[in-house]
Amino acid sequence: MKVTFLGTGTSQGVPIIACSCPVCQSDDLHDKRLRSSVLVEVDGVRILIDAGPDFRQQMLRERVKDLDAILLTHEHKDHVGGLDDVRAFNYVLNRPMDIYALERVLGHLKVEFSYVFSEKPYPGVPQMALHPIGPEPFMVKDVEVTPISVRHFRLPVSAYRIKDFTYITDANYISEEEKQKLSGTRVLVVNALRREDHISHFTLTQALELVDEVKPEVAYLTHISHQMGKYADVQRELPENVCLAYDGLTLRL
Questions:
Q1: Which of 51, 155, 161, 191 could cross-link 166 (Cys pair, CB 3.0–4.6 Å)?
Q2: 2-7 and 37-42 beta bridge pairing
Q3: 235, exposed or middle or buried, with CB in 10 Å at 0-12, 13-18, 19+?
Q4: Contact by Cβ (8 Å): 126, 109
Q5: pLDDT score for 121
Q6: d(CA 204, CA 121)
């Protein structure tokens, strides 16, 4: 399995427009964060988790030529805003893009991208094949994906486990029942927005507490805001098996 962090930033990315804080003004490329997304390549199948406003830029940067499916965590703009650009894959692969998400999220897409699903769509609009998911594992080709229900304040969000890799973003609560699905995870990715309390995201301390509870071999923190601090400073504070993820980081399992 190969995992590529396409983006590791929060909804506004880093740097934030018009912000003059030290993180946004940093020259360290580790502090330049597009909206959060990962590409998972396993057994010849390429699966994208989330397609935010930076989707096109991320695909070009990593020179992605083929994509089998997109898994969506939830419907917020920083996670679905780039879906119009699946048109390029429609043209190259000559098929609709398979998109997996909760029924609620797919319903949002039908509103947000109503021109895609109209009775007489305009020529050249994106082609999307929508697949509703529930709590049970599902297959993307020959790859089993286990959805994990987490909470983003009051909004149910889908985390995903593929083999020994688990990806959790936009969460600040996981039930004990759902935590059982994390057992045995070797690589855990979890959101850590900032140090201060937040209504809908894990803080750095809360994310580290989850890592300590799950006990993966290694953990990576993502969906990071400029309020967290500079990459180099924060990384020095973290436990030996925990890293701040950064855009372009590649893992091989």
A1: 161
A2: antiparallel
A3: middle
A4: no
A5: 87
A6: 45
**For residues 116, 65, 132 and 186, what is the CA-based torsion angle, rounded to 10 degrees?**
-150
Environment class of 112 (CB within 10 Å of its CB; exposed 0-12, middle 13-18, buried 19+): middle
Quick check: 83 and 126 in contact, CB under 8 A? yes
**Residue with token string 């990715």:** 189
Tokens of 199: 């209504």
Q: Token pair for residue 20? A: 């003059």
pLDDT at residue 229, as a whole number: 98
For every residue of 139-201, DSSP letters joined together read: EETTEEEEEEEEEETTEEEEEEEETTEEEE-S-SB--HHHHGGGTT-SEEEEE---SS--SSS
Give SS3 for 96: coil
Q: Where are the alpha helices (DSSP H) in the chain?
A: 55-61, 77-80, 87-93, 103-112, 176-179, 204-214, 231-237
Provide the b/e sequence for 147-170 (b: ≥16 CB within 10 Å). Answer: bbbbbbeeeebbbbbbbebbbbbb
Q: Per-residue pLDDT tens for 112-122?
A: 999 999 998 88
CA-CA distance, 241 to 250, in Å (whole number)? 16
Q: Give CA–CA dist 10/204, Å, rounded.
A: 14
